[in-house]
Specification:
Strand content: 25-35%
Strand order of the largest sheet: 1-5-6-7
Shape: globular
Radius of gyration: 19 Å
CATH architecture: 5-stranded Propeller
Oligomer: single chain
Number of strands: 20
Distance between the termini: 45 Å
Helix content: 25-40%
Number of helices: 12
């Protein structure tokens, strides 16, 4: 069997997968608003790379109306229909891996709707196999429950996750920490796992996914949430996470450079207060698409993230309704890594498919 590894998110992409929001009992009064936000995210990413939006049967026309349709030369967003329960492809879509020759496969981990929080979820548990058929990639099955938002990798053998999520008894009660780590190493080609103690305290939906608190930005470099408000519920918890990172080395023995994001964003929506996580961003070809709240601190957070991703255009997209549902831009996206060397992929990319390089914080969509 070929040896595969999961490439870093900043590696060359063939495109991005998203799923159209349709679970009415989750979105309630914000369903129309969240559809507009998903469409805005899709169009923002499509400025850098092609987007495939998957809608449940019968909902494709709605998605095309709001996103445009790349098939007819519109927005760069192509809509297809497949059975779905929910719309969080970071967690239910396959995690793509490459072998040493650049051949692509996808790891199909089990999915149980974050410990059975939503029903039904059987279509989402099966969607990885359908997506792998669609993109023409081999399927690597795993019996372990894992969501993509629970991990971040550097593409060079290092994976970061949280104990709060991966050791939660509602995921893999029959597996201990060592067995979980062994499966991550076997399926994703990593050689070192760094366990942070905490995800977000308010992140009860995912039980503390790492993509709300920490992300690799480059080999040896991590961006971390570090709220500067002592009254923030994660003020002490994120400092505990940072201490673990400070004491850690990556798979190649390097000490980690840590870039802090001190800004936080709380806003009111649907008669409640929600937190928009700036860390929950998506790295595209030549760009970074970041969830924002429409607050003054957005600009400073975008600037920090731009400093962590030099050479990429940083775009903020309003994501209040997405946060209401329990996630951000990263949660609703899944990259498809290019199955060829990056130089060949760049040469083959159609004109206008990527944004000009530049480290800038762009206006909010």
């Amino acid at each position: 069997m070929a040896e595969y590894r999961m490439p870093a998110e900043w590696s060359e992409h063939e495109g991005c997968l998203m799923a159209w929001p349709t679970r009415e009992d989750l979105w309630g009064s914000v369903l129309t608003e969240v559809k507009e936000e998903y469409a805005n995210v899709a169009r923002a990413i499509a400025a850098f790379e092609p987007v495939t939006m998957v809608a449940p049967p019968g909902h494709g026309a709605d998605a095309r109306d709001r996103c445009g349709d790349g098939v007819t030369g519109g927005s760069g967003v192509t809509v297809i229909e497949l059975p779905l329960d929910d719309s969080w492809f970071r967690d239910s879509a396959p995690l793509f891996v490459l072998d040493g020759d650049g051949n692509r496969a996808g790891v199909d981990f089990r999915f149980n709707a974050w410990g059975g929080k939503h029903h039904p979820f059987d279509s989402d548990d099966r969607i990885s196999a359908l997506l792998l058929d669609h993109v023409g990639a081999d399927r690597i099955a795993s019996d372990m429950i894992l969501e993509g938002g629970a991990i971040t990798v550097d593409g060079e053998g290092t994976l970061i996750t949280t104990e709060q999520c991966l050791l939660h008894p509602n995921r893999n009660p029959g597996m201990n920490r060592g067995e979980i780590e062994a499966e991550l190493k076997s399926r994703l080609g990593v050689t070192k796992v760094i366990w942070l103690p905490y995800g977000g305290l308010l992140d009860t939906e995912t039980d503390g996914h790492v993509d709300g608190v920490c992300a690799f930005a480059a080999p040896g470099t991590v961006v971390v949430s570090l709220p500067d408000d002592p009254d923030h519920p994660d003020y002490a918890r994120m400092r505990a996470n940072r201490a673990v990172l400070e004491a850690s080395t990556d798979a190649r023995g390097r000490r980690l450079e840590i870039i802090d994001v001190p800004q936080t964003a709380f806003a009111d929506l649907a008669d409640g207060e929600i937190e928009v996580s700036y860390l929950n961003y998506y790295v595209a070809n030549g760009g970074v698409v970041v969830p924002v709240a429409g607050l003054p601190q957005d600009e400073a957070a975008l600037a920090v993230i731009a400093s962590a991703h030099p050479g990429r255009k940083v775009v903020g997209v309003r994501a209040l309704a997405i946060a209401f549902g329990g996630g951000g831009v990263h949660c609703i996206t899944q990259q498809i890594p290019a199955a060829r060397p990056a130089s060949a992929a760049r040469a083959a990319r159609p004109a206008g498919a990527a944004h000009p390089a530049g480290t800038t914080a762009d206006a909010t969509v």
